[in-house]
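#struct-pred

JT: dropping the chains for the assembly here, can someone run the whole complex?
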Amino acid sequence: MSAPALSTRGLDKRFGSLVVARDIEFSLPQGARYALIGPNGAGKTTLINLMTGMLRPDAGHILLGDDEITRLAPDQRVRRGLVRTFQINTLFPHLNPLEAVTLAVCERQGIARTWWRPITSYGAAVDEAYAILGSLMLSADCYRPTRELPYGRQRLLEIALALATRPKVLLLDEPAAGVPRDESRELFEVIAGLPGDITVLFIEHDMNFVFRFASRIIVMVGGGILLEGTPHEVAADPRVREVYLGARHG
Amino acid sequence: MSIVGAVTEPHAYLRSQTRWRPVELAFWLATLLPYVLFPDYLVLASAIAITALFALSLDLILGYAGIVSLGHAAFFGLGAYTAGLAAKHGWGEPISGLALGGLVAGIVGYGASLIVARFRHLALIMITLGMGLLLEQAANSASWLTGGADGLQGVKMWPIFDVFRFDLYGKTAYGYSLGVLFIVFLVARRLINSPFGLSLRGIRENALRMPALGAPSRAHIRKIYTIAAVIAGFAGALLAQTTETVSLEAFGFQRSADVLVILILGGTGRLYGGLVGAIIFMVARDQFSGNTPQFWYFWIGILLVAVVMFLPNGVLGGLARLGALLRGRAP
Ligand SMILES: Nc1ncnc2c1ncn2[C@@H]1O[C@H](COP(=O)(O)OP(=O)(O)OP(=O)(O)O)[C@@H](O)[C@H]1O
Ligand SMILES: [Mg+2]
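RK: done, full complex below.
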């Protein structure tokens, strides 16, 4: 069996006395579609921050394939194929989507260091950016400054930027956060249509989307993993009903 | 290109963003007007061109990469003293003196960038301020070299290309300063339209997202900071060469503050902002500061507050908005 695309061993993280990650261990097989769920404040975003290097764990290891990446800087991890999106839009307000995605493509191709040749002489990079925007239904909006785009388009741009880095493992932090339901569906169709060799972990609160688009689910509560299983197993588990659904709806 | 359609559109768009606009050509042609219209003001015109070059340098780091600096005069002063000292000690050839000034400023700039690239916001302001004060004091203390508070005397320049002598009316000085400004501007314009320039704007727009795209932001910052230091060094060298003297004021905090004011007046992140700001600032100072030089900052203070309140993108930003409004109304 090949190594998992991404795995963690014994990750711990605390903010002062608050434990936000406790002995986190899981692994994502190549090409998997995992959902990460849990009540607000469970530590889901923190876990993504730990895996992508935006936070340093107090203890534990992170492996991308067979390689230990625990000490790598965030940009180094991205260049190795571990890429995230943000729960709260983290975009370039005054750049338009074409510029933003072209930027990401140029960074990946290593041509972002070039300062003596105009961007227009890198036609292939621009074409690639435009194609990514097209695949996310953003062609029509690609010349408008990002800050003027409707919120739902901005959520799509979050994903477009991540795709431009050619991720091997993609961590999506509530991709549909704040998006109306019908647009959310559109967004998840896009995620479902991602190339099969990209390993995907997404955080999502809406159980309909979770059950429909994830093959396995990790449930987090209070900084720890409560259980991991198929949608059926998770749905049937009384602890999940009590802790997770209880916390949300009770 | 014969294929017109969806695929070529983004290329056409990007080309249109980088194309020379008629107003730019008009601007650069107008820079020659002082020779015809104000031949008595060529010395001032030269000082404006030098200040514009200095402001252009700051625009590259502040306007494009979002790096605030309150000590940018450090590199101006280094360029000025390097070129001045070279000329004083027998090497008065302007072009190589200019290059040397840029080189020394660039080397120190690279060293400073190792620190600067690690910080942002208030910490950055304090660090750049500190570095500026430090160099100013160092220049003051090393009076055996710099002449201290008396300034550097005895700077003798050779003619440019062995032909154009520096004259009292500033004819040569203005042509020289303007020429250097224009060449550096062309390079800066190319830089901001490059992939690197795009990444700089990315750092300015969202420093958090850049590493999440795999961008080595700190390396980018080190590079642009060094380039900006070289340009600031050029500006300082020009001042030393065209005035044939250097004073501690070249390193002064006042100069760092003024250039920030100039850039914000004109508008950051648009290359021409520093140029337009320099013209407004220097001409206004020349007109108003005659009797009471201190009082001049009263007016600059008012102007600065007004611009920041009503024209957050500077004079050029205001003009751009006006232009957009007028176009919007046109049938
Ligand atoms: N930088 C920080 N400093 C201190 N506490 C933090 C920090 N970041 C997050 N926390 C706390 O850690 C806990 C976990 O936060 P996290 O954002 O990971 O939750 P989450 O599962 O993503 O929740 P949500 O569903 O609301 O997005 C919360 O109690 C939060 O307040
Ligand atoms: Mg979260």
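JT: nice. The mean pLDDT of chain A is 93. Chain A touches chain B through 50 residues (CB under 8 Å).
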